Amino acid sequence: IPEADIAIVVNVHPDIIFGLLPVLKENGYRGIIGGSERPQELPFGLRVQLAEEASKIDLESAFAKPFCALKPDPAMPTISAFMEKARFGKPKIEILTQKSREGKETILAANVIRSAPCGSTWYVAKRMTGLETDQEDLRERISEAHHAYPCTASMDQDQELKDTILHKAGYIIREAVEDAIQRAERMEPTDSGTFSGSGRPRVSYDQRGDE
Predict the structure, then answer these.
(1) What is the pTM of this model?
(2) 174 near 180, Cβ under 8 Å?
(3) What is the model's pLDDT at position 199?
(4) By the 8 A CB rule, do 64 and 70 touch?
(5) How far apart are CA 152 and CA 67, in angstroms?
(6) What's the structural domain count of the chain?
(7) Which domain holds residue 158?
(8) What is the CA radius of gyration of the chain?
(9) Burial bucket for residue 69 (CB in 10 Å: 0-12, 13-18, 19+)
(10) Which of 29, 54, 86 is the last residue of a domain?
(11) Is residue 211 part of a domain?
């Protein structure tokens, strides 16, 4: 087993994961992260059991369905530190807007603070640039961007979620964009024209508390 602090397991049989826990501990690992992208992968009961077994040997653990629902947990400091450093987990975005016409604001930049493990957050954020924050089809545009990216979540119905995992992932990124709009930094209008590419302003990244 290679030297590392954290193991990430995806699409691995639970029996193997249970057997892996003590091996990871013996080899100096401090935590394990797992994601469920299909209905048959790591159902709720198994995720609870894995977390309990990991806790017994003082091994941090974090399991989520879908994988992009993974949130930092103060009780798991090593995993949380990794998520902050890698900007990995439940999507979090910052948005910069500017008044474009009477009563309207346009998204100038959408920057990723934390991305879904599959990377789709970066793609969705890029596609938000140029949209108005209150346009009628905003949710549809978010959904289109998410579906245009090869999300790894299944389209099969999941009994635990009462929906498909792909749809749940779509709701998560939609909430991230809508939350970012509520927190948006607003820039005063200028006559410098539209922003694009390297000329587009960036929202500064700082060490905010996780949400």
Answers:
(1) 0.84
(2) no
(3) 43
(4) yes
(5) 9
(6) 2
(7) 92-199
(8) 19
(9) buried
(10) 86
(11) no
In a domain, 205, yes or no: no
- Of 174, 173, 181, 169, the C-alpha closest to 109 is 181
Of 60, 86, 112, the last residue of a domain is 86
- Whether residue 102 is found in the same domain as residue 195: yes
Average pLDDT over residues 89-116: 92
Give the integer Cα–Cα distance in Å for 29 and 34.
14
Contact call for residues 67 and 118 (beta carbons, < 8 A): yes
pLDDT for res 208: 46
Contacts of 15 (CB under 8 A, 6+ apart): none
Reduce the secondary structure of 45-112 to three states and give it as a string: HHHHHHHHHHHHCCCEEEEECCHHHCCCCCCCHHHHHHHHHHCECCCEEEEEEEEEECCEEEEEEEEE
Structure tokens at 123: 């793609």
Residue 79's identity, in one-letter code, is I
